[in-house]
Amino acid sequence: MDKKICDGNHEHCPAKITPDYDRLYDLSEFFKVFGDSTRISIISVLHEGGEMCVCDIADTLGISQSAISHQLRILRTAALVKPRRDGKTIYYSLDDEHVSEIYEVGLQHILHKRGEIEL
Amino acid sequence: MDKKICDGNHEHCPAKITPDYDRLYDLSEFFKVFGDSTRISIISVLHEGGEMCVCDIADTLGISQSAISHQLRILRTAALVKPRRDGKTIYYSLDDEHVSEIYEVGLQHILHKRGEIEL
DNA sequence: TTTACATATGAATACTTGTTCATATGTTCT
DNA sequence: AGAACATATGAACAAGTATTCATATGTAAA
């Protein structure tokens, strides 16, 4: 009952590929976290400025403390940032080296597309 | 009228950072494209299998031709894939080397988190 | 223990987005 | 020209999500 959409008589009919949907789902969820301007801004700020407290992030970005806190939770859950408490203040920093790497590659890509970088 | 949220008396009050919001918005839009399971599956399939036509992508993933076509448009608009017409058939492939790079780094990240890879 | 500060969170709302269904476009073959 | 095939697209609906507002938690100082 394999419902073929096309007749399969194409010149280029590639070898069967069996996608690992679990992996791909996790992967899309991972990238989804980068795909919001507030969250990528938080990542950017932590990437540039290193460890920073919530209110300084909010102040730097001009976004409400509540909104930042909500997004930090998502970033925390995804293990992209990690908190460190010092008294009343909680400092956040990037958790994983992959985060910086992906941020940088993505940035290079859009700078390249804008012609602001030669590569 | 610089409404400070915190009093700024923290031990670690970092140097002023001025985010480039235009860049960050573009960057988030870029990552947003990766952040959908259908689109990342398309990217995955093209990454593994190289150039492939629409109906083979749909067939491989078990997703309707219409849904694939809609998502291909988004990928095309973001310049992540490029089409090549051959008669009735349109073959798609990954457009930019950055796409593969980001896909691979992201995959490594989640495999690492799952403990399926040592790094 | 009150008061003030830093952060987190629940509920509600407004907005975005992915899929389906039906149909349109464009190509090839007869 | 007409039929069949491959892909694209518009409209509608459902589902997800980011922000705001109000408030709660937790910590430190008075």
Task: Give a quick summary of the entry.
Chain A is mainly alpha-helical and 119 residues long. Chain A has 5 helices and 3 strands; from the N terminus they run H-H-E-H-H-E-E-H.
- Main sheet specs of chain A: 3 strands, antiparallel
Largest interface: A-B, 65 and 65 residues
> Count the strands of chain A?
3
Q: Proportion of β residues of chain A?
A: 5-15%
Name of the top-level CATH class of chain A: Mainly Alpha
Tell me the CATH superfamily of chain A: Winged helix-like DNA-binding domain superfamily/Winged helix DNA-binding domain
In whole angstroms, how far apart are the ends of chain A?
49 Å
Q: What is the count of DSSP helices of chain A, taking H or I runs of 4+ residues?
A: 5
Oligomer: homodimer
What is the rounded Rg of chain A? 20 Å
Secondary-structure element sequence of chain A? HHEHHEEH
Tell me the helix content of chain A: 55-70%
Question: Which regions of chain A are unreliable across 5 or more consecutive residues at pLDDT < 50?
Answer: 1-5
CATH topology of chain A: Arc Repressor Mutant, subunit A
Q: Please list the strands of the largest sheet of chain A in the order they lie side by side.
A: 1-3-2
Morphology call of chain A: globular
Query: Number of domains in the coordinates of chain A?
Result: 1
Class of secondary structure makeup of chain A = mainly alpha
CATH architecture descriptor name of chain A: Orthogonal Bundle
* Average pLDDT over all residues of chain A: 89
